[in-house]
Hints:
Layout: H1 2-12, H2 14-26, H3 35-47, E1 52-55, E2 59-65, E3 73-79, H4 106-122, E4 130-136, H5 145-151, E5 162-173, E6 177-179, E7 182-185, E8 189-196, E9 200-201, H6 211-227, E10 236-244, E11 251-252, E12 255-264, H7 267-287, E13 291-297, E14 303-305, H8 307-321, E15 326-328, H9 338-344, E16 347-355, H10 375-390
Parallel strand pairs: 3-4, 3-5, 5-16, 6-15
Antiparallel strand pairs: 1-2, 2-4, 6-16, 7-14, 8-12, 8-13, 9-11, 10-12
Helix pairs in contact: 1-10, 2-4, 4-10, 6-7, 8-10
Amino acid sequence: MLADNIxxxxxxxxxxxxxxxxxxxxxxxxSYQEYQxxxxxxxxxxxxxxxxRKMAGTGVVGLIEGKDPxxxxxxxxxxxxxxxxxxxxxxxxxxxxPGVMHACGHDVHTTCLLGAARILKQLxxxxxxxxxLIFQPGEERNPGGASIMIAEGVLExxxxxAIIGLHVHPNLPVGNVSFRSGKVMASADELYFTIxxxxxxxxxxxxxTDTILVASHLVxxxxxxxxxxxxxxxxxxxxxxxxxxxxxxNVIPTEVKLMGTFRTMDEAWRSRAHQLIERQARSISExxxxxxxxxxxxxxxxVYNNEILNEVVVRQATAFLGKENIRETELRxxxxxxxxxSQQIPGCFYRLGTGNSEKGISAGVHTPRFDIDESxxxxxxxxxxxxxxxxxxxx
Length: 395
């Protein structure tokens, strides 16, 4: 059976895949700078005889055809970029690039897709259709590599009927995978405010425009955008995360800057909230005699798992791993540019368990101590190959 053959090859290639992951982990690169990573991916695809093309700067798109290539076309995606974090793990494969670390598991994602590609190529006479391999840059930074890949035609020539992606999950024990139908992750927009006014001596505030006070009112008032305007049954988060202004105890500054984030699961409310944020910020500033510049940097859309595709994928995952290893993914207010794909075609974004509390592997993503139980790689590779070979949406 195909599933058994995939499992056999995933086990056979286990040490090779671990070596790939460790190489990628030791050589992380920031968003849109994945030059060595991209070259490494291309080298592996060449070695295995898989045709590919480059796009979006460092992006790579491969194609593997099985029997009857036009019968179905499924895309599988992995991201390749790392984060600006100093690694604090004492492991042989620790990052060799100071201040850069694969703290979000994109090294694992890329490894799983490479391993799956190798398996699918070797077994291409045993499955039908075409699998499109998407190695994407820049997931961690606006505008998101997915949006660039789409603009350059990654969902065309040939056009996939669906797309599947995975993400490591340190809170999910190794051996498990998790899925969720419908809304999965939030949209993410960046908020920037620059408040300007007449500065001066703190002992004579009547001769100034107190930009610090304006900023303080604005921080509090912005919370009401969510608490008094959004549907309480639809998650939203507005957080001001940075206040920059002033440099001493007795001078009211001429300028104060605020930065923050707005996240939601509802695209219609998202658009309305942008208008409310701008109106609230401008009204408060003008009422208190200050000027304000407002920028809402629209980021990633919500990640939405197509209900029919998710059902198909869960059914195939259950057949591959067993019902006892299938979990439900919790709603998350984190964001992922996979949402760009899922807005265009049916998408399914699932989680790969990588945690192992007994081994002390439990640090969260985006932290200096993040790592994985590497036995998850074989599961991730096999699952990706199986889904690529077996998922079919057409009746």
